[in-house]
Write a structure and sequence with these properties.
ten-stranded mixed beta sheet, six-stranded parallel beta sheet, alpha/beta, single chain
């Protein structure tokens, strides 16, 4: 029996086991779930073999703690990694089933929001591919961040009920549930010369693990993503409250327990919201650490000296910073180790990645909240801080300032970044520029004290998901020219440089881009009712909406081009489709106002027949991984225009690059390294550099009004914010530019940006531009997450 016939037979058996109807009467959802069940069986077998292999080898295990894992849809990705996509697609087709239709049944899991979570997911893919034993530790959110809807030109938020129809990829492991305590008080007594802490009067929740299989490319290894879900320790009902009609109070315990994993990033503007955020962070750290140490003891007993040799605990940003005191608690209180021994093991085992240079994103919690909610954890943090202060070398110059800046406890707050640095053996940034800023500014005092801890690990992305899976046409062209080696060794893409002057290859590249643009146009027409021209330039700006990411600058460009075209219909402006997507945090008024502005500009331009469709503007609501996989392959111009010195790395730029888009950007984040890879002639750089921006900031900024007066086109755009010509007035944006002195230098970089855009856009479609596109693809290999995790393994985790 052929492999296809065998698959067809097994699929029909899965249909019979999971559906009450024959195949032809099953819904698409039922067919999808039957296929996932079949694939899950395959994954389980490989997972068992992977686990056996890892146990026998005794190799080091990585535990990757992250509040987000933006894994995207798994079906096609898993089929690609198992190398059975073509077989399954053909087998289903012979049964009258469309694989694309089944893939569309899958919801994007609501497990993340942006780059932090997507990076974690890419790392999990690469670690499995590299056959590194890794477990991801996160939270199984009942609802994602939110489902974005654009209503009357404004963002509205709806619950992201991604688990509405269940999630067939997960397996509940209730037998490994963990109790997580909150509140209460401590009693101490001496026992055999040791001080013993007893935690009393606490209330707790149950953390129930759900495991997802993440398959490495080639199907040789399956790692586990373990997500924790909160439940009450026991079902409780206050019968008296219920009978008197107070139904909320009657189920208060149940509701409070489930609230911990109800929502990704609950609003923390209120005391209750702050407490819930901290509960979330301790919840998954406590449960995850139980899993880590249980697995260690199963294999090595209480030989704790082996812990750093056999276990690497990595904290993805400051959300899992409580790994430091929690590991100390477990080693001292549960395993009987002394402070010094436990601290040495802790520091050798834990490592930390910082993802931001924004001071407001460096987490701090009030001491009062930490003491009340996590009394034992706070006591350990207090002792870490005390010992750190006592050991501080007060003979160094400016010792007090450094002491103040690096202490964990200061001014009524617990500084989580400082806790992470002090309790880790490695601190890394995520792009060369970002790491230098950490060393020179954000963590300058720490770097002066412990320079050996700091290192750079430039981010990477899974080129198999964002090129092989997302852009089949381009992948086939690449494989036809250089073979399949690039799928597991992305640096082999450099072999494409041999074809950069091959007119036939460049024409083929243009055809693959046109095909993806047509597909995106069809999707936009179906989803948003907007007609786009696939022959136009596709200028794309898709990412989280934030002031420093400067979607506002992009909006000003579009409006300025429209004004120019209205004044001079013969203006040399190429036909362009401007595509925007991204969510604004529900409490971030400025970002939501920018979305409103973009939608107002889109309405104005798309309705104006006098410009004959030369400009189109689309805001694609509810941006996520699956939508991104449609967008990246179709882009000509990749907008990476953050204020220099503000973007840690950015990974969208890499996904665009793998798909042949040319970057238009500032010298910020990973753009710096893209420029180094492709050469300055194959990227379009504009605007101030990070040192120039910082110098201007130190000098108190600049006169925004004068900047506007110097440029009539810019002045006209700023006036349109409030003159009613866009159907609404945008005083909040105008105030940010003028009254608040343009914090992100939108006005200062406007002229340079417009010049760079016009020059690049006029090249799109030319042989010169196609050559740039090919060179970007050829040099993208260094930005594969395979390279990144190899560096983590070799230089941080000791694997």
């Amino acid at each position: 029996m052929s492999a296809i016939d065998s698959f067809k037979q097994e699929y029909l058996e899965s249909i019979a086991a999971h559906c009450a109807s024959p195949l032809e009467e099953c819904s698409a959802q039922e067919k999808y779930e039957a296929l996932v069940a079949l694939v899950m069986g395959c994954c389980s077998s490989i997972r068992a073999e992977t686990g056996k292999r890892h146990r026998q080898s005794g190799e080091k295990r990585v535990y990757y703690f992250s509040l987000e894992f933006l894994i995207g849809r798994l079906l096609r990705n898993t089929l690609v990694n198992l190398d059975i996509e073509d077989m399954v697609e053909q087998g289903l087709s012979e049964l009258g089933v469309d694989l694309d239709e089944l893939c569309e049944c899958e919801r994007d899991p609501g497990l993340g929001n942006g780059g932090l979570g997507r990076l974690a997911a890419c790392f999990m893919d690469s670690l499995a591919t590299e056959n590194v034993c890794c477990t991801g530790i996160g939270i199984r959110y009942r609802f994602g961040l939110f489902r974005q809807r654009i209503v009357n030109g404004e963002q509205t938020e709806e619950p992201d009920d991604w688990l509405e129809n269940g999630y067939p990829w997960e397996s509940c492991r209730s037998d490994e549930a963990v109790t997580v305590p909150f509140g209460g008080y401590l009693e101490r007594h001496e026992e055999n010369g040791r001080i013993i802490f007893e935690h009393k009067g606490w209330h707790g929740v149950q953390a129930v693990p759900y495991d997802l299989p993440l398959v490495g490319f080639g199907g040789n290894s399956v790692n586990r993503l373990r997500l924790w879900y909160s439940k009450p320790l026991k079902r409780e009902l206050d019968l008296a409250a219920f009978n008197r009609g107070d139904y909320s109070l009657a189920q208060k315990t149940d509701n409070e327990a489930k609230a911990i994993t109800c929502l990704l990033y609950p609003d923390d503007d209120t005391p209750a919201g702050k407490q819930l955020r901290l509960e979330q962070e301790y919840f998954f750290v406590c449960a995850g650490m139980e899993h880590v140490l249980r697995r260690f003891k199963e294999q090595y007993g209480s030989n704790w000296a082996l812990l750093p040799e056999k276990v690497a605990i990595h904290t993805n940003d400051t959300h899992p910073a409580l790994c430091v005191p929690e590991l100390m608690r477990r080693l001292m209180d549960d395993e009987g180790l002394g402070w010094n021994e436990a601290w040495e093991l802790c520091c050798k085992t834990i490592s930390f990645t910082n993802h931001t240079v924004l001071p407001e994103a460096l987490e701090c919690w009030s001491i009062e909240l930490m003491q009340r909610l996590l009394p034992r954890i706070y006591l350990i943090i207090e002792e870490i801080d005390r010992r750190y202060r006592e050991s501080f070398d007060k003979s160094i110059p400016n010792w007090y300032e450094r002491w103040k800046n690096t202490a964990i406890l200061w001014d009524g707050s617990v500084r989580m970044a400082n806790l992470s640095i002090i309790g880790s053996h490695s601190v890394n940034g995520v792009a060369a520029l970002h790491t230098e800023i950490l060393k020179e500014s954000v963590f300058a005092d720490f770097y002066a004290l412990t320079p050996e801890k700091f290192n750079n690990k430039t981010n990477g992305v899974s080129h198999r998901r964002f090129l092989r899976e997302s852009n089949e046409e381009l992948s086939h062209l690449i494989t036809e020219k250089i073979g399949e080696g690039w799928l597991t060794n992305a640096t082999e893409l450099t072999k494409l440089r041999a074809f950069e002057r091959d007119e036939t290859v460049l024409r083929s590249l243009a055809l693959t881009k046109y095909s993806k643009k047509r597909q995106l146009c069809a999707y936009i027409r179906k989803s948003f009712g907007i007609e786009c021209d696939p022959r136009s330039v596709f200028d794309v700006h898709v990412k989280r909406i934030h002031g420093y990411k400067r979607q506002l600058l992009s909006a000003f460009k579009v409006l300025s081009l429209y004004n120019e075209l209205k004044e001079n219909p013969e203006a040399d402006i190429p036909a362009t489709t401007f595509i925007f997507a991204g969510k604004a945090a529900h409490s971030y008024s400025f970002a939501k106002e920018v979305i409103k502005l973009l939608c107002a500009i889109a309405d104005r331009i798309n309705a104006d027949e006098s410009i004959h469709g030369r400009l189109r503007v689309v805001f694609m609501e509810n941006f996520g991984v699956s939508m991104a996989q449609r967008i990246y392959p179709a882009a000509d111009i990749s907008e990476q225009i953050s204020t220099a010195g503000k973007e840690a790395s950015g990974t969208g730029c890499m996904k665009f690059m793998f798909n042949g888009a040319v970057t238009l950007g500032t010298l910020d984040g990973a753009n710096v390294e893209i420029k180094e890879q492709v050469g300055e002639e194959n990227i379009s750089i504009f605007g101030m550099t990070a040192p120039e921006a910082e110098k201007l900031r130190r000098e108190g900024g600049y006169d925004a009004s004068s900047e506007i007066e110097k440029n009539p086109a810019l002045k006209r755009v700023v006036e349109q914010l409030t003159d009613g010509s866009l159907g609404a007035q945008f005083w909040l944006i105008r105030s940010a530019l003028l009254s608040q002195n343009d914090e992100y230098f939108v006005l200062r970089d406007y002229e340079s940006y417009m010049d760079a855009w016009k020059k690049l856009a006029r090249e799109v479609g030319s042989t010169a531009f196609l050559r740039k596109s090919l060179i970007n693809i050829a040099q993208a290999g260094v930005f594969s997450s395979d390279r990144t995790v190899e560096e983590y393994c070799r230089e941080i985790w000791g694997i």
